[in-house]
DNA sequence: GAATAAACTCGAAACGATACGAGTGGCGGT
DNA sequence: ACCGCCACTCGTATCGTTTCGAGTTTATTC
């Protein structure tokens, strides 16, 4: 079929073991090196990672399991991870589980059968059993954007609660009193934390009103609907804080439709890099997560764990822009 | 280390070959099936795809090589491919070559050494040597969004030239006479085709003016700069046609800054799903590529080729919304 | 209940690479 | 000229599955 190490051996008159040594960076005699390199070029040899992996128990692949591939959050992070991991010789196999638990588990088994050396997951549930199979098989796992109840995996998250509290405080400082909160499903770790940060700030200022809180579907439509609902029920709302990208977009659209000018009629703080909309709404504040950093740190942590490092928790700081 | 087929054999008292048969869907005796299934559950067996691939020369993996991961175009397509391919039992290894030729070649070798069964590529250059290694190794290749000079690979593209001509004609019908064109680097197949469609329409109407054409960097900034330049040099421009997503956004931002109202002061046709901006600019026309379909068709074609099908070219239709 | 066909099951040999212990050659020192 | 040592190089077993031809059950038929 294709060119193997044996063909190289035959071509050069050396033993497989020698070729293998060369391929793995073990020094070989100069004249042999030349011969081998010439043979590789001539025959177009490409190393069979499968045979290699079978023997070495390393595949040079890591699995990336996320609930939704096509959004800014995921792709920014993945791009960064991919780059870093490639540099280290790892390829990434990406699985999108569509925020579906059954599919998540299935994808996990799939990735394990692909012999991945490690796993970076953004789990749908925060339950450790989501990735227990991986842990049982001694596959290092890095969880991003969520905290789980397991200490056998690493976590890379941002200081959700704190940044959310700060963002809210900023609105309060501005003199706002009826600050609405729009989040995704608060059972999700991230949304829950962000909501708590908001609550802390509001309670401290004596402004908390649970009627001003909406958690809806994490989507442009969800943000749109929640905003409409807020404006309808509490017309004198003087600020809105949205805790994720998609809903921020939806909310801006709704405000636009209602004719409320951000920065003039109403204060607004969104989430994630909303560069595009900023062109239209220059006054907008936004909570910026260090997305590329999350990706990079997650990748680094995984590499370290593959090398035998212990799991650890890393909290990155977001900033208000 | 981990549980193998041999452990299952020992546990059940059967031969490896029988277990293997069961795993591959070959019928086994009912009582053996039960025994095997019980053993798999008890031991937590997960099939080692590497050993399997070594023997079968199939890996159950396809490589996806694209110039830029983090944009709407790529992710929408990838999401769709991933779903379809997973269904068929394939995983995808994604490589982002950052629009870099050297990196593209390197990624290709990388993917080949990972023993992918097929390749979906959006090549940086249109030169066939970009993927000749793959073809030489009998790996089926599907090229998306570009036409290349090779008939050993499949192509999945949209009717760029035609849709571009139609979009331009529509502007002409509207009574526009000084229609500017903004595209990415026209050496890229897609941009070139789109430019030609525009030219055809303009020439036919006797309106062509090469000074009204800008090709710049395919990015938000590039679109912004090109628009500013157009408005500066040809202030009475009465329509702008932008042929890709990122530049559309940039162009809208520039128009906004210049105080030109789309649909009132100037006609505008953008590219790809600009849902977000549409909320601000409801009058905007846009050329919609069937992104998910591209992904699905590419995946289907690849699967077919892996199964022995011949390469073929598929042209999908875009529409003006 | 024996013969025959059909349906499973078996053992051992691959697949392509690496690991390991043993073997070989060249070289400096005496 | 011999010894010892270092630095490669070699042959072979092995990784976990599948494959294949041959062997064993089971079912069917008369």
Task: Offer a concise description of the structure.
The structure is a homodimer of 321-residue chains. The first copy, chain A, contains 13 helices and twelve strands.
Strand content of chain A: 15-25%
Top-tier CATH class of the largest domain in chain A: Alpha Beta
Give a short account of the largest sheet of chain A: 6 strands, parallel
Q: How many structural domains are formed by the residues of chain A?
A: 3
CATH topology of the largest domain in chain A: Rossmann fold
Oligomer: homodimer
User: Based on CA inertia axes, which overall geometry of chain A fits?
Assistant: elongated
Low-pLDDT parts of chain A are none
The count of helical stretches of chain A stands at: 13
What is the residue-averaged pLDDT of chain A?
A: 91
Distance between the termini of chain A: 58 Å
Q: What is the helix/strand order of chain A? A: HHHHEHEHEHEEHEHEHEHEHEHEE
Name the helicity range of chain A: 40-55%
The CATH superfamily of the largest domain in chain A is Response regulator
**Most extensive contact:** A-B, 54 and 54 residues
Count every beta strand of chain A, where a strand is a DSSP E run of 2 or more residues.
Answer: 12
* Radius of gyration from the alpha-carbon trace of chain A, in angstroms: 25 Å
Structural class of chain A: alpha/beta
